[in-house]
Amino acid sequence: MISLETVGVSAPLPPRVLCYGTQKIGKSTLMSYLPDHIFLAAEDGLGGLPGQSFWEIGSYADLFTAFTQLSRPENTFKSVTIDTVTAFEVMLHAQLLTRNSVDSLDKIGGGFYKWRIEALDLWLEILNYMDWLRI
Fold this sequence. Notes:
With 135 residues, the chain is α/β, with parallel strands linked by helices. It has helices spanning 27-32, 60-70, 85-100, 115-134; strands at 37-41, 53-56, 79-83. It has a three-stranded parallel β-sheet with strand order 2-1-3.
């Protein structure tokens, strides 16, 4: 029933940010200023940022293992960065190849660049997990 007694109030959620740019322009440095931060490092780019918490991510499955650990009640991290999305995309493509038992992305989905539809589903799965952590 709609009445003045049932009016809801929205709660602020932490922002989602995508930093995209060429190497060495400060994307990771910017993210390092976030509170209680952890990097999910898909490449070795944190060498110039001493003292940063990170997990090495070597596969698509590693990312979801990290998400599982971050969802535990004892987790104290309040912000997370996949560093870098470009490096992680290679792992996502490897997951597509394994999932479809093929040796080329072009063999997925029935033709040229149709694999991108399945890749989008994997990216959406990642975003859904990150939203779940965010909420």
